[in-house]
Predict the 3D structure of the following.
Amino acid sequence: MTVTSCNIQKPNLGEVIEKYKEFPGSLLDLLHEVQEIDGYLSRDVMQQIAEGLGISESKVYGVATFYSLFKTAPTGQFIIRICESAPCHIRGAQEVLEAIEETLGIKPGETTLDGKFTLEFTSCLGLCGVAPAIMINDQVYGNLTSDRVKEVLLNF
Amino acid sequence: MTIYRSHVLVCGGTPCVLKGARTLKDLLLKEIERYQLSDEIRVVETGCLGPCDDGPVLIVYPEGAMYSKLKPTDILKIVEHHLLKGRIVEELVFRERKSSAGALQGSAVPLEQEKYLSLQKRVVLRNCGRINPDSIDEYIANNGYLALGQAVTTLTSDQVVKIVADSKLQGRGGAGFPTGLKWSFTAKTTSDQKYIICNADEGEPGTFKDRLIMEGDPHGIIEGMAIAGYAVGASQGIIYIRGEYGLSIERMKNAIKQATDYGLLGKKILGTEFNFEIDVRSGAGAYVCGEETALIESLEGNRGEPRVKPPFPGIAGLWGKPTIVNNVETLANIAPIILNGPEWFRSIGTENCPGTKVFTMLGDINNQGLVEVPMGITLREIVYEVGGGIPGGRGFKMAQTGGTSGGCLPSEFLDMPMDYDTLSKVGSALGSGAMLIIDDTHCIVDVLKSFMKFFCHESCGKCTPCREGTTRLYEIVLALSEGTATDTEIQLLKELSGAMQLSALCGLGQSAPNSLLTCLNFFADEFQAHLNGQCPSGICKNLTIESEAV
Amino acid sequence: MKSLEDLKKVREQARQMTGLRGDQEQTKIIVGMGTCGIAAGARETMKAILDELNKRNLTEVTITQTGCLGLCEQEPIVEVEVPGEPRIIYGKISAEKARQIVSKHLVNNNIIGEWVIGRK
């Protein structure tokens, strides 16, 4: 595994596991919290979770890869999620996508060389009232045009 | 407690916040301070006020004047003219609520804008935009928790179930199953533990009503859940909110804490033997978890794959215990039904589908946003009256009702009443209430491509009809848009769709072909044109425009 | 909160906070707040009314302001409108007089005839 910027052995992984251990069904909540540490769930981390909870590694991996908010590989510092659902499509999401691709030089599923941005598709963000919309990490942006999205990206 | 002469309600819904509502609120407070009006005017941040397309918006009471599309300079004007001098800044007014004081000032509101409000009937959204969602006191002031109080102190569990059954309330998540019937199954089952789950995993494209209810009136949901718990004998509630809804999670958690502090949740509620607690859990990005058994799998920490039914969750759900899964909007209807009675509820809407429905209006429509109207309103009223028509005066091509899993209706259906029964008869669905309006500049095949790609991506992969079917449907529609499809493939689309509707494990695969089938039915010409290598709208890049070819 | 009565008590207290946003007919006090009104001391009048309402806990009253009525010499002007009754317009209302309007007119329903300059 070629990970440079993250320290998998951060002490709080154990604490997080300990915290959820007693609650049946809390695997998703646990993964959310663990992902906060490194920004993704490495194989190592998933092994430790499996051990800590006394469940199989394949179960942890299966859950982690089922949900789109969990990452099993390092991503850019900022994840750009562009909505590809119909309401955004009707309102010009394609144009916004092309503007992002052009500005950052990456396609959906890719990360910029400097490790700053990852671009990916998402289904409806529930921001149809201000379509087309994107989400960058926790922040949401709506009413985008190709020009406006370029402006937004400049702020990062 | 202080009396103010004026309350300014600033919309704190996500769309308005995106457009800078927080900055405007800060400026507003600063200006009010500058004019030394802080003792006279109270500024409150509320949940969504509705017309998201025209945000940021704020309302000044007692006049009830709503200002829209606000810029910082507008705030200066509003403070100086309206708040200081008492003159409504007419050029900034979006529309006025009917309010006695407003009449004094005269009204310059264009008729079509007033329709936005006059056609609405707010039951579920009764408090959205009127109260501060972070204040339990404001909720209580509007008779909040009174329904719970009356239920637990004066009604038996059976009586509560009967009231809800008599109201004929149907589940507002999409399927329209009678809520009272669902409750009665679980109420009859004996078990040491039962669960009430609020399904707030709102993922249907074009739907954001649940987010607005959670952001605008979180206590309404809590009260509905507690009443459900009392009715069926459950002491544990869980709200499952999709992971993308950060603000909803925050607001719900805060509201639960306040209710617990007031003793409205917890042990021995209002001095009775009824105990009820609520937990908030969040999803992690999977559309299929909106399906109730997939949601339960997810709550148990598993991949969110649907279960084979029966048994239904009402009998064996979370951890094998009887579990009610209700949508946010359904639960928000419960308290008003208890307070006003089932007859009142049945007096709204249509005979078979009473009550109101929250619709989200999107796509090619002037007033994008959400409205709550009585069931049975026509599509025409939604598009041309409440929704303000289609931008640029372009023509109506079709509306997809019920989100991406719903069907598409052409203009012949504009005067059809919108309710669960009528829509399912024509192969569409009321579903979650999303109304995607598409004007005549769009290509049916191109739009379908977007719908099919969505299902292809969101199919969970557990059952073959859905996993393979959604992929094949997408491939064929893609071929149509590129001009490489043939008659055989149209035939295949129909066959495959039929097979999926019959054999897919859950609603996702069963409803995925709805839009396709309705379009094949109502827009056959346009499919034929694509088979001939023409795209009449000129959207599909590899094809010629019909007019050139003729 | 231990009973339904406790809940109702909290509701009554909380209502005072939000009563302003209701749609029901309420008694209204309108203070003329044009430039001339403000120059004549209408802001002090307004503050006194608010203060008096607060003290007496009169939550079912709407206070609004309006522009100049054109009777500048009579400013500050205060209008009182009780639902179902003609609107009473008072002229030259200082802060002190304003307090009396609240106590006599609003609370005891006695119109103070000598200050009235018009009825609508």
Notes: Chain B has 24 helices and 14 strands.
